[in-house]
Amino acid sequence: MQQSRRITIRELLAEQGKAAKMHLLAGEKGLNRYIDHPRMQKPSLAFAGYIEHLSDYRLQVIGQTELSYLATRSEAEQKQVVDAVFDLRMAGVIITRGAPPPDIIIEAAKRTDTPLLVSDYPSSTFMTNMMLFLSHRLAPVVFQHGVYMDIFGLGVLITGASGIGKSEIGLELISRGHRLIADDMVEFSRESPKVAVGRSPDALRYHMEIRGLGILNIRDLYGAAAITDTKRLSLMVELVPWDHVAPEDRVLGEEGEADILEVPIPRVPIPIRSGRSLAVLIEVATRNQLLKQRGIHSGEDFVQSLQNRIEQGQ
Question: Of 112, 137, 162, at which residue does a domain stop?
Answer without folding.
Answer: 137
